[in-house]
Structure formats: C-alpha cells, structure tokens
Design a protein that fits this description.
The protein is α/β, with parallel strands linked by helices. Helices cover about 20% and strands about 25% of the residues. It folds into two domains: about 20-135 and about 260-330, FAD/NAD(P)-binding domain (3-Layer(bba) Sandwich), CATH 3.50.50; about 150-255, FAD/NAD(P)-binding domain, CATH 3.50.50.60. The longest helix is centred in the last third of the chain and has 22 residues, at about 310-330. The structure holds flavin-adenine dinucleotide (FAD).
C-alpha cells in the first residue's frame, strides 16, 4: 500500500514514493464502494478518494426500504457503513477529505497512467472509475435540511410508498415534478403542487394524466416556499402568494422537491464527453467513457435510474470491465 504524501511535498507534485494504483475510484457513495469491493476481491490495488465521508447521498435518508437483501428498512448511514467495512475488509484504501479537481488522461509515453489532481496532491492510477454522484437542488428554505428524510424528499420511487393516504406537496412544475407527482398519486390521497410561476412547464401528455386524478390534485401558482415546519416530521409549509404578497401556513404530511439535479462534474467538463445537463456519457453496457481507461458509475452517469441498487450494479459493472482492461483484454471487452 502507498504511504500518505509527506507534508514537505510541494503542492501539486506527485510523491515519487507513491504507488501507482491499479484502480482509483473517485467518490465513495454506493457506486464507488461497490466497485471497491469487487476490485479489491480481484486483488487489484485500489484507492478510493472521497471529498467528504464515505456513503454519499444515501447518508441523507433515515429509511431505505428498497435495497435488496434488507427485508426491514435500513438507515442510510448503516447501509453506507456496512459497504465501507466490506470494501475495507478486502483491502480498499479509502482517503476522506480528498477532493479531485482535475483528471489528466494517460499520455502516449511509457507512463500510461491517469493522473488525478487533488487540491494539493496528485494520485496515479492505471484505470479510474468516476462515481462522483449528483446533488438534488435544494429549496434553501429554513427547516429543509433539518427535516430531510423526515418528510422532506427528493425521490418519489424511494419515498412515495411512505405516504399512503396522506396529503403531500410537490414543489416544481417541470416534466420530472409532474411525472413524480403522478407516481406519488398511486399512494397519497392528495397532492398539492407549488409553482413559482403561473403555469406548469411539463409536456401536455403528462399534464393530462395528472389532471385525470380530478380533485386529488391542487395547484398553487405564483407561490414560493418560505419555510418547512414540523418538530420531528414535516407538518406544513409556510407559503408566499407572490401576487398578493401574502404569507400563510399550508398543512401537509410531506414535501417532495423536484427543482433539478446537478451532477458533480464541473471538474470533468474539459476531459470527458458530458450531456448538456453535465452527466457523463458512457457505453450503456460496459460503462466506458470517452477516455480510455476511465469508467463512470452511478448517479453521475447519463440515463440512470438514480437508485441505490442501480448505483451498486453500476459500480460492479465498471469494476469488472476495468479489471478486464487491466488484464490486457482491452477496454471494450465485457465478461460474457
Ligand atoms: C434524501 C435521499 C433519499 C434517498 N432514498 C433512497 C432510497 O430510499 N432508495 C434508493 O434506492 N435510493 C435512494 N436515494 C438515491 C440514492 O441515494 C442514490 O441513487 C445513490 O446513493 C447514488 O450513489 P452514487 O454512488 O452514484 O452517488 P453519491 O451517493 O452521490 O456519491 C458520490 C460521492 O462522490 C463524492 N464526490 C463528488 N465529487 C467528488 C470529487 N470531485 N472528489 C472526490 N469525491 C467526490 C461525494 O462526496 C459523494 O460521497 C435517495 C437519495 C436522497 C438524496
């Protein structure tokens, strides 16, 4: 295993004593940790670099009901901890507080490794898996952070079943908000949409389906969320009617926020092919990116389902394909 970079090392220099890892995984969410379990079990030297703590977005939820293998709900922190322990058990080295700010693809010379630039250190890998995830845009309203996972949600597939026969608010008026709102109506007795503007921005076909639910759907246009209130769980929203410049309390059992999702790829825009929204484009089966030796996995990838189990599957797929590549069978060979 490589030693930590000595403090005397000048900023930006590669520590000459530092090992070149077989695989460097950037991001220790579910995708990255799942990849690390596989690469380490395959005896590939593996370094996982995480800017915060291991776990990623799943740390933000208290109840995960749909991750296979857990018949009872599992706390997101416990799930993250189990994955971290499993990766470490096989020898993964996980460095926290290590944010990657630039990726330098392998050159053509003798040293065909990829260099990852941290803020004051560099790391070398023969192959790289990018599993840096994405972040749901927040309202920024008081109460949102405190009640996240306790009535504040960003994912209907994850949380709608908790709202059977309840009254739920949906913030947002685009395609995603309406599509997710329709899904929530499979469970909730009533859904109230909060629109900042006058109208929805969603496709007509989605709106027709939404309004086929009749008076189970209410729309509050020209309205903003000022605060999310509730002691232990969401009990209501303080809303502002912008046209009338009036604040009022609106009771509800939960609020789903669908105002956008930002991939953590600002540092990759000059390196890889990204979608317009900034997600990493990959081959659908092998998860190869536009740069040889670099794979992408999990929520950061374009066209994924943004679920914990799909992130895990992506991590495994990227890991096994990267292994094939390192064993000299080529980047475009999948296990058959
Ligand atoms: C509140 C909430 C509840 C959810 N509930 C469920 C649920 O019940 N069931 C379900 O299946 N899914 C749920 N999800 C979705 C699920 O959490 C994600 O699909 C999954 O965690 C994605 O994993 P990931 O590894 O792809 O990315 P992430 O979890 O986003 O992990 C990415 C990691 O990369 C790190 N990182 C980012 N940039 C850098 C960088 N430059 N350098 C180093 N590290 C970096 C981040 O700090 C993060 O730790 C929920 C999501 C949220 C937000």
């Amino acid at each position: 295993m490589a030693d930590k970079t000595p403090p005397s090392q000048p900023a930006g220099e590669v520590d000459p004593t530092q090992e070149t890892y077989d695989i460097i995984i950037v991001g220790a969410g579910i995708a990255g940790l799942s990849a690390a379990i596989y690469t380490t079990r395959e005896r590939l030297s593996t370094l996982v670099l995480e800017r915060q703590l291991p776990g990623g977005q799943i740390l933000l939820t208290a109840r995960v009901e749909n991750y296979p293998g857990f018949p009872e709900p599992i706390n997101g922190m416990e799930l993250a901890d189990r994955l971290t322990q499993q990766a470490k058990r096989f020898g993964a080295r996980i460095e926290t507080g290590a944010e990657i700010v630039r990726v330098e693809p392998a050159g053509e010379g003798a040293e065909r490794h990829i260099v990852l630039h941290g803020k004051d250190r560099r790391f070398r890998g023969r192959a790289v898996i990018l599993s840096v995830g994405s972040e749901y845009r927040r309202l920024g309203a008081p109460g949102e952070k405190r009640l996240m996972g306790y009535g504040v949600s960003y994912c209907a597939t994850c949380d709608a079943p908790f709202y059977r026969d309840k009254h739920v608010m949906v913030v947002g008026g685009g395609d995603t908000a309406v599509d997710e709102g329709i899904h929530i109506l499979d469970f909730a007795k009533r859904v109230t949409f909060v629109l900042r503007g006058q109208e929805f921005r969603a496709e007509r076909i989605l709106l027709d389906e939404l309004f086929s639910h009749g008076d189970r759907v209410t729309v509050l246009a020209n309205t903003t969320v000022e605060e999310i209130i509730g002691e232990k769980r969401v009990e209501g929203l303080v809303l502002r009617d912008v046209a009338a410049d009036r604040k009022y309390l609106y009771e509800c059992d939960g609020v789903f926020v669908f105002i956008g999702l930002d991939p953590n790829t600002a540092f990759l825009k000059d390196t890889l092919t990204l979608t317009e929204g900034g997600f990493i484009r990959t081959d659908a089966c092998r998860l190869t990116t536009s740069v040889p030796g670099i794979w992408a996995a999990g929520d950061v990838r374009a066209d994924t389902l943004k679920q914990a189990a799909t992130a895990a599957a992506d991590g495994v797929t990227a890991a096994l394909n990267a292994k094939q590549y390192l064993r000299g069978k080529g980047a475009h060979m999948a296990r058959t």
